[in-house]
Amino acid sequence: MNKIAILLVAGLAALSTANYNNGTKANAANSTNNAANNSQIQETMVLGKLYFVNLKEGEQPIMTALSLFGNRCGSESFNHKPYAAEGIRSVFELDEWIEFYPKANAESGIKVMVFKHQEDQGIYLKNSLNDKTPGYIQELDLSKDPEGDETSLWGSFYLHPEEVEPGYYDFVFIYKNKVFATMLTHFFKPNEIYEKSDSELEKLMSQSL
Asked: Which string of DSSP letters, residue by residue, matches 198-209?
């Protein structure tokens, strides 16, 4: 084989190796990006934070912020926190009515499902969720009052202390049968945190799993 042929073969081999490495890196990067997009809820979870999932690049979630109101614990200012994607009120007592005030780009069709906290949050992304899904507690359809304003109540519920135990629960938000966010919450026994001050309640909310 002459020198020109040897150099040509060597060049093609180097180019092939470079393309393979670049392709492998690109595929790995895409896999990483997809994993980050679909598994944001796998990180250490903070109470009261909306973990948005299943979003395409640049896409906005159907619900961008949330405010929750409870009827037992904390002062009016603690209960009437502004709309936010994190720092949302997330500690409650069982048997406490929880009111939902979302900021959303739809007036109906959003559902919140409550599950006993799952360490593997990916379970919410793998299959259609229903009352047979492990950890299922209950669900609530959220809809805006047609005659209400932007701050109108969309729905409310409570967890009955005779049916569920105190502990950590996942709020899973769904639109058109597709999960778009989850939020970690903590429920206490009735009257367990009723007399705590706002600062004490905020401290409870600073916990993470």
From this structure: HHHHHHHHT-B-
Longest CA pairwise span in the chain (Å): 90
Cα–Cα distance for residue pair 109/144, rounded to 1 Å = 10
Burial (0-12, 13-18, 19+ Cβ within 10 Å), 158: middle
| Interatomic CA distance for residues 101 and 83, integer angstroms | 8
Residue 179 φ/ψ, nearest 5 degrees: -65, 130
Region label for 143, one of left (φ > 0), alpha (ψ between -120 and 50) or beta (otherwise): beta
- Which one, of 7, 166, 187, 180, lies nearest residue 89 by Cα? 187
Q: What are phi and psi of 73, to 5 degrees?
A: -105, 145
Query: pLDDT tens track of the chain, all 209 residues?
Result: 444 444 434 444 444 444 444 444 444 444 334 433 444 455 689 999 999 998 888 889 999 999 999 999 999 999 989 999 999 999 999 999 999 999 999 999 999 999 999 998 988 998 789 999 999 999 999 999 988 888 899 999 999 999 999 999 999 999 999 999 999 999 999 999 999 999 999 999 998 88
